[in-house]
Amino acid sequence: MKGTEGPARRADDTENRSPQSPSDLDEQLQTDRKLKESEDRYRELADFMPQIVWQTDDRGIIQYVNNRWTELTGIPVSEAIGKPWLPGMMDEDLQRAQEAWAAAQARGGIYEHEWRLRLKDGSLRWLLTRGRPIRDERGTILRWIGTDTDITERRDSEAKLRESEARLELATSAAELGIWDWDLLTNRFVYSPRAKAICGFALDQEVSFQDIVNITHPEDYPLTSAQARRALDPAIRDKTPYEYRIVRPDGAIRRVVAHGSAVFAHIDGREWAVRYVGTLQDVTDRMAAEQALRESKDRMQIALAAGQLGDWTWERSSDRLDLSTRAREIFGIVEIPELTWAGLQKLLDAEDASLAAKAVENAIARNSDYSIEYRVNRPNGQQVWVAVRGRPTYRSDGSPSGMVGVVQDVSERKRHEQHLRLLINELNHRVKNTLATVQSMASLTLRGSLDVEEARTRFEARLIALAGAHDILTRENWEGASLNLIVERAISPYLSSERNRFTINGPEIVIPPKYALALIMALHELCTNAAKYGALSNETGKVAIAWELAGRAGEGELRMTWQERDGPDVTPPSRRGFGSRLIEQGLAQDLSGEVKIVYAASGVMCRIRAPLEPKPRMLDL
Q1: Residue 111 has pLDDT above 80, yes or no
Q2: Contact (CB, 8 A) for 596 and 567
Q3: pLDDT score of 114 more than 50
Q4: Do the Cβ atoms of 40 and 123 come closer than 8 Å?
Q5: Which tens digit of pLDDT belongs to each residue from 407-442?
Q6: Helix, strand, or coil here: 443?
Q7: What digits encode the pLDDT tens for the residues 306-315?
Q8: CA 444, CA 195: separation in Å to the nearest integer?
Q9: Which strands make up the sheet holding 62-65, listed edge to edge?
Q10: Could you tell me which residue, 595 or 16, shows the higher pLDDT?
C-alpha cells in the first residue's frame, strides 16, 4: 500500500473560528468520544479477522495495521506505521503495486493488486490487496482502508488448472484430437479448431445441432443417435467409444472415432444430463494403413503357407529367437517354449553349425541377405535339411538389432537331388555296360556266321530284348524292376493266341537293374533256342518258368528254373554258342551267382541262383 507524496498538511484554522459555547463543546466531546469508541471497536474487530486489515492517510502513509500482520511476518506493527509500504513485499512485485496505486489515486476508485509476502518462516504467500477511499461530505479523500487476503491456494489451483489445460492441449494436439462440448440446456455446441477441421467446418463457424446432423453419414446416424441416448440416460451413462462416417461439406467421406461423457446435475429433485463433452479423432488414414497392413499380412501368410515356409525373428542383444508355428514344426521343437540362436545351433549338424553362425555374422557386418542350407537333427532323432533366408535389421543409430527371415524344409528336394546324382552315375555306368554288352553281342553274333542276314536278325532280336529291359527300368526310374514284368516281356514275342505254351509261377519280387538286364537277355536266349530246337519248335512243347525267394522277405537268395517238356528229344550241343555262354557265364557274373544249363533228353533245364540284397536308401539324412 503506497501513495504518492501528498500536499503539505493543511494549516490549523482554529484561529478563524469564533469561540464556542459550553453546549457546543459538550456536543463535540460526545462526538469525539463516540468516534473513538467506534474506532476502538473497529480495531478490536479487525484484530480477529483472518485478513490483514490496514488504513492509510490520503497520501497512502500507513496509519494502522492489525495484529494479523505480525502473526504472519513476525514484524511488529510499529515498524509498519508511518511507512508507504508494508515491509516484506518482493522487489519484483513493487513496481506493479506502485502502478496499481497510482491508477487508483488518479481515478479515486478501488485499489487492487496481487503480490507476494515473505513470512517469518521464510516461505512466500500470495496476497490480494483491495482498498477503497474514505471521503468527507465534500468528496475529498480523507484516508484509505483495505484488506490483504491470502490467495495462495487459489493461485496454486489456477496454476494447476493452467498446467492441466496445457497438458490436455498437448495431448489432444499430439493425438490429433478435436474437443467438442454440447450444452444441452441451450443446445449450443462448442467445437475446438481441430474438431472443426476434422468435420470440415470453417474456423469462425458457429456449430449447430443441424450442422452435426448434416455431416453425419445417413447410414450411421441411427448409430450415433442411439449412442447419444445411452450416454445421456442417467441409468446407463454409456461411455463406449463409437466409430462412424462423416460427409464433409466438400463431399469427402472420413471415418472418425468419438469418445463422449455426459455431465449430470440434480434439477427439481431429478438427475438430468446438462452437458455432453468428448473428443473426435479422424482415423481414416490409420484405418486405411491398418487395412493395407492386414492385406499385406494375409498375402504374406498365403505365400508362406503356399511355400510351406516358417518365419522367424532374432533379437541380437538377448539372443532370443521367435519362431512361427510352421518354423517350430520344421525344426521339430513345437514343445520348447523359449529358444535362443545359441540353443538352436545345438540342433544343427556339427559341421554345419559353425558355417551357419559365420554366415549370420557376415550378413550383419556387410548388411547383406543371409542364405544357407544345413542339416538339423530333430530331438526325435530325425535329420532334415532346411533352407534359411534372412535379412539383418538395424537401430536408428546404425547398430545391428537382429534379423528376420524364413525357413523351409528342403529334405524332399535334397532327396531328389541325390537321387538325380545317383541316376546320372547309374546312367553313366549303364551306358558303359550297355555299350559293352552290345559290342559283345555284335562280336559273338557275327563271329563264324556265314549268313549275314541271319546274323543281322539274331542281333536285332537281342537288341530288342535289351531295349525291353531298359523300358521297364526307365518306367521304374532305374530303382529296380518287377521279375514278373521281366519274364512277361522276354516271352511276349513267343506267346500264341491259340494256346498258352508257358507256365509262370513265382512271388512278386523287385530285382536290381543289373539283374533285370541280365535276366531278360538270358530269357531271350532261352526262348530263341527253344523256338529253334526245343519245346517251342513243335506244336506240343511247353515251358515252365518258376522262382522262389529263399530266406527272409526282401533279402535272401533268388532261385529260378527254366524247364522245357514235350518237345523234340534233346541232344547236347557239340559246341557252346553265344547264347549258352551268355547264359552260363555272363548271367552268372552279372548275378554274382550260379547258372547251370542241363540238356536232358526230356527237355532243356536252366537253374539260376543269385543273392538278393535289401534295396538301398536313396538319401540318408
Answers
A1: yes
A2: no
A3: yes
A4: no
A5: 988 888 888 888 788 777 766 665 665 555 555 555
A6: helix
A7: 667 888 899 9
A8: 104
A9: 62-65, 52-57, 141-150, 124-135, 111-118
A10: 595
Beta partners for residue 178, in sequence order: 280
Residue 70 sits at the vertex; the CA angle it makes with 64 and 74, to the nearest 5 degrees, is 145
Q: Residues with Cβ < 8 Å from 197, sequence gap 6 or more?
A: 178, 203
Mapping DSSP onto H, E and C, the string for 429-440 reads: HHHHHHHHHHHH
Rounded Cα distance between 83 and 1, Å, is 9
First to last CA, the chain: 100
Q: What are the beta bridge partners of residue 48?
A: none
Q: Where are the beta strands (DSSP E) in 224-296?
A: 242-247, 253-267, 270-282
Smallest CA-to-CA distance from 532 within 524, 583, 546 is with: 524
Q: Is 98 exposed, middle or buried (0-12, 13-18, 19+ CB in 10 A)?
A: middle
In degrees and rounded to multiples of 5, residue 295 shows phi and psi of: -65, -40
Q: Which segments of 336-482 does DSSP mark as H helices, in order?
A: 341-345, 350-366, 411-446, 452-475
Whether 431 contacts 402, CB under 8 Å: no
At 274, the amino acid letter reads V
Tens digits of residue pLDDT in 318-346: 999 998 888 898 899 887 878 899 999 99
Backbone angles phi, psi at 167, to 5 degrees: -65, -40
Query: In the predicted model, what is the mean pLDDT of the chain?
Result: 81
What pLDDT is stored for residue 316 in this prediction? 92
Residue type, 482: S
pLDDT range class, residue 304, cuts 50, 70, 90: low
Cα gap 277→234, rounded to integer Å? 15
C-beta of residue 598 within 8 angstroms of C-beta of residue 361:
no
Query: 277 - beta bridge partners?
Result: 181, 261
Burial label, 621 (beta-carbon count in 10 A; 0-12, 13-18, 19+) = middle
Q: CA-to-CA distance for 544 and 566, rounded, in angstroms? A: 11
For residues 159-185, average pLDDT? 79
Contact 595, 606 (CB under 8 A): yes
pLDDT in tens, 227-249: 999 999 999 999 999 999 999 99
* DSSP secondary structure letters along 124-167: EEEEEEEEEEEE-TT--EEEEEEEEEE-HHHHHHHHHHHHHHHH
Which residues on neighbouring strands pair with residue 609, listed in sequence order?
559, 594
At CA 604, angle to CA 598 and CA 607, rounded to 5?
55
The confidence band for 448, taking pLDDT boundaries of 50, 70 and 90, is low
**Rounded distance, CA 303 to CA 284, Å?**
28
